[in-house]
Amino acid sequence: MTFLARAATRTGRLAKQRLNQPSSSSSSSSSPKRFYSPEVKTSSVPGPISKKVLSEIDRLTDARPSIVAVDYARCRGNYLVDADGNRHLDMFGQIASIAIGYRNERLEELAGSEEFRIAVMNRPALGVFPPKGLKELLETGLMSVRPKGLDHILTANCGSTANESAYKAACMAYRHRERGHSEFDQDEITSCMENAKPGSPQLTIMSFKSGFHGRLFASLSTTRSKPIHKLDIPAFDWPAVDWPRLKYPLEQNVSENQAEVERCLALVEETIHESKAKGRPVAALVVEPIQSEGGDNHAPPAFFRGLRDVTKRLGVYMIVDEVQTGVGATGSFWAHEKWGLTTPPDIVTFSKKMQAAGYYHTAEMRPSAGYRNFNTWMGDPARSMQARTIIQYIQENGLVEKTAEVGGKLYGVLEQLGHRFPGLIQSLRGKGEGTFIAFDAETAEKRDSIVSGLRNVGVLVGASGERAVRLRPMLIFGEKELDIFSDKFQAVLKDLA
To answer: Catalytic: 376?
Structure first.
């Protein structure tokens, strides 16, 4: 048995011993004490020490987006502790990037292992010098949760690079198909060095208004959530179409919402035809299961089935961006599992909660030659080890199912509060989507007051879009945390009403 196999077996055995211990309150002798409630010691958040630390950081690098300075050694489970000693119930999860809590004992055990130390201190140029155990590492980790029909993977460095690499793969596959899977000709080889056709074709990637897919050049051209992301940056002239604007409650607006979905699907097909007629074919369409940064905008499964039908029929590759929705938060491991697609997407990108990044893909999306989708690191084996441990912990503790259950109860609490505070909770959405829940306030000012009010009583939530409050608790968020949130939130709403 190889070292990796022995490590995986040992990890699994230890997990079974802990199976009946609640993940949000488990502890070890080397870890800080477990927490049961928020505690705010300062008159407001951030407190004076956080402000001082952030001011010092800002002299070296931009700290203006920072919320608080964090004392990570003291964080535990669902709770973040800041530099002032304030303890927060974290329902934002580091922008949805933490799955199984702060200082999780299994991850700390991994961090102390020889395999992890070797991987960290000898980070390989993965595409040229992969470690001998890479296949086994991927098979026991990231590939064990691969979406149905996607049997290949490319690891990357973050969500933006995952999407950038996916766009490249789609364009390469599109042109490879166009030339009949033949080799490049001399005209293509020469012209690409001049950034000219035919070697540099005018292919496009279609996205949706209000979508977010990253902040690098190609990914930023498909990002349409906030002007601050895009100002002053040159962009590709790529098409973006309307996202369905659903009316809530859904059960009271069935016909209107169905008409809106059909309108947007017709617009997608029309735009694909128009772009091709202009000599700018759409190589791929990229879509989030839930538009996160753009305001937590949802769409029904029928919309995504329609997208798969249109893209398949018109020869456009479909990229599903699961950077934020993936890894259990919606009550299924991948959000797109709920769509009932007859054929899988061509690519599914991931990052955030996986603590690793990349994309799963079909065989058709593999480049025709080596070095085409390539960079120095191409991901990181240490991050893949983290992902493997996170996946095992989620599976062994049934956290996806628990998230679906507690998410239903969380939605119910918000629904009741929405009846009592209609100016503060509107268009509640995310029913049946685990804890991936959001609502709008009546105005942006009221939304900001909710977010800051919760922060000052020790609860961290996020804001997105124009008026949305979004919840991103970790998968270890349970009923005890739900009760705490409910009490704190009611108090904030009463103060603001």
So the answer is: yes
Active-site annotation holds for 129: no
**What confidence score (pLDDT) does residue 109 get?**
97
- Which structural domain, as residue segments, surrounds residue 205? 146-366
For residue range 164-211, list pLDDT tens digits in order: 999 999 999 999 999 999 999 999 999 999 999 999 999 999 999 999
Whether 183 is in a domain gets the answer: yes
The amino acid at residue 228 is: I
Residue ranges, the chain, pLDDT below 50: 1-30
Residue 204 annotated among the catalytic residues of the structure: no
pLDDT value, residue 19: 36
Q: Is residue 270 part of a domain?
A: yes
| 396 vs 27: CA distance, rounded Å | 17
- Active site annotation includes 435: no
The pLDDT assigned to 464 comes to 93
Provide the 3-class DSSP secondary structure of residue 356. coil
Catalytic-role residue among 376, 443, 483, 495: 376
Catalytic residue among 90, 321, 346, 380: 321
Tokens matching residue 8? 């995986």
Catalytic residue among 212, 436, 439, 477: 212
Q: Do 99 and 216 reside in the same domain of the chain? A: no
Q: Any idea what DSSP says for residue 70?
A: B
Whether residue 268 sits in one domain with residue 328: yes
pTM for the model stands at: 0.92
- Both 264 and 335 in one domain: the answer is yes
Number of CB atoms found within 10 A of residue 18's CB: 15
Q: What six digits make up the tokens of 439?
A: 């609502």
Number of domains in the chain: 2
CA 210 to chain centre: 16
Q: Which of 90, 116, 352, 435 is catalytic?
A: 352
Which pLDDT belongs to residue 32? 54
